[in-house]
Amino acid sequence: MWKIAFWILFLAAASWEVVLHALEWRHLKTLEGGPPQEMIRILPDNYNWHRGIKYAQDHLRLGLGETLSSYTLMAVAIESGLYAAVSSWAGMTFTSPFLAGLVFGVVASATVWLVQLPWEWSEAFRVEESYGFNRASPALFWRDQLVKLSFLCAIGGGLLGSLTWLSGKPLWPLWGFLLLFGVELFFVAFLPIVVVPLFCRLGPLQDEALRQQIEGLLQSVGFRPAKVLVADASKRSLHGNAFLAGLGRAKRVVLFDTLMRSFPHQEILAIIGHELGHWKRRHAASRLGLLLSFEACAFFFLWVAMTSPLFAASFGLEGLSHGSLGLAVAMLGFISTLSFQPLLSSRARKEEFEADAFGAECAGREAMTEALRRLSSENLAWSPPHKLYAAWYHSHPSMLERLLLLSDGEGCSVAQ
Fold first, then answer.
1. What are the pLDDT digits (tens) for 162-203?
2. Are 170 and 303 in contact (CB under 8 A)?
3. How far apart are CA 152 and CA 158, in angstroms?
4. pTM above 0.70, yes or no
């Protein structure tokens, strides 16, 4: 029964993702004829519509390739017996449940990294570079990939090893849930201190006038104490961005240097105001609550699977808790793809509308509108996605939706 359920969920998730990519491809093909009528009046005159569509199509190809590669590898590994063989090797080599789970988690995480690697290389050096966005050298790419591999192995191996050890204890789903929550809270609190410096050099904002404007905006909304820093993102990409991160004294406002080069001050304030909107409206907390609800259900599912002797036996994993946990987590991934993913994406898009409105309040509706228009033009991001594809994969509404909503109300400036 468990094996049948696994493959039904596998096929449902894989098929649905292929369908979504096919719908988006067909949608983009229809847009090759030109922008929708309602977009013509808001598109910048100098925007290359067909280049933007081609950029979206090239990324879609890579996304579908990576998706199919992941599903294919999983199917081959399980049906060929390779998954069970590696799980058995880890169990026989390491008598400690923690070490067996740790090593097996490291192997699984490294495999995921290997599957993603050629697609990420193609994204950086075929797609992004051909459109003039990529600035990373091959050496820098490999350096970043090794950092990513280290993180994947540390987190994947550490979590699987810990859960394998906990699975033999009373109330282990509760302790596993608290462990995962602790890891998530750690990264939320210390992202700008621990993770960001591994990929970008952070330095103080040198533009004194802009710094004073930003600090005035932060003070007006109560976001303090916080450091305003600039990341040398242009070493890797010309895409511009900004974000807020951290808790307490670890709070940071991080601006990409690419943003500083092409955006006027008032538009930068609007972008920061947008990010402050996420903080002011407690979006991170509400999204964390939604995530924790799913994780609570997920640990209940893990408990059901791990306490059923038929689950491990269905895949030839008797006595191999780490291997059984890995497949149970994979089943959760299928369930998440089919149900939780669109729910989370829908919440995220709603939050973007609220953040846009707050950005307009902070810096003025015109500044927020022009900042969004400039971001879309510089990132070739004007093409609207297919509604179903967006429902699953897009955390941001289309630019048409965002600008239309902004045009309905006037923002009041608090950061002039």
1. 999 999 899 999 999 999 999 988 887 777 678 888 888 999
2. no
3. 10
4. yes
